[in-house]
Amino acid sequence: MSGRRERGVALLIVLWGCTLLAIMLGGFAALARTEGLQARYQFAQTRAHYAAEAGVMRAIEGLQSTDVASRWIADGRPYLFAFDDAQVTITIVDEDGKVDLNAASGDVLAGLFKAAGATDDKAKALSAAVQDWRRPGDAASPNGAKKPQYEAAGLPYGPRNGPFATVEEARMVLGMTSSLWAAVAPALTIWSGRERPNTEHAQPLALAAIPGLGQAGADAILASRGQANGAAIAGGNGVTHTIRAEAILDDGTRSSLTSTVRLRGIRSGNQPYAVLRWREGDVE
């Protein structure tokens, strides 16, 4: 009787051991499968990322082509580029066609905010606030904002009292709302040094910011670009550009890069470009 009981206990232990082993093996298998999926995902993301980087490099080469007729045009039109098994879409925007936060006149700034949907009073106040942000001194301009106005609004900071260091810094200007920022951000720069955008490259919103141009004038400029000779347009490219490259693999894996570069020309012993800003993924 005692022997049977011992054999039964031993059988029960063996069964529990087999069950525990099966659970452990199942867990290891699930873990291995998860790690395999993660590795494949990371590998695909890496491939897409480098395809997007290749797109940025291709754009830099296209912008500096010695053949003006084949030179890429920096007016926002899309270029398609195949890299390995990825399809890369590239757009290039010339920075001198944007509104420069550090150089634009008050009228241009007000025109930009009004074109983006702000009322006349709101546009003028934001224009003054932007100018006060970049202007040294503690005295606010009419409708502008220096540190006392920021404190009165409950903000723990004041204006820089110097040039904008980044485009994104404009989000901190007193009166800037998230919706207005989203509308104007693509039309802003700190790299052109121009009082008003260059009409040869300006996008619709930046064109609308130019005083006296009007919607009819902006439409005429945009229409003329479509009729102009490509070589003539490319020959007018500036030196600082924002390049966006989006790569999509056959399996749908996607990666995007946005880079602002300043071209230096292709000369022996000289780096042909300098990167001013580099952002990965979708940006606002």
TrEMBL record:
The keyword Magnesium does not apply. It holds the Pfam family T2SSK_1st. Residues 94-191 form the T2SS protein K first SAM-like domain. InterPro entries: GspK (IPR005628), GspK_central_sf (IPR038072), T2SSK_SAM-like_1st (IPR049031). Keywords: Cell inner membrane, Cell membrane, Membrane, Protein transport, Transmembrane, Transmembrane helix, Transport. Residues 133-155 are annotated as: Disordered. It is found in: Cell inner membrane. Its main location: membrane. Belongs to the GSP K family. This is Type II secretion system protein K.
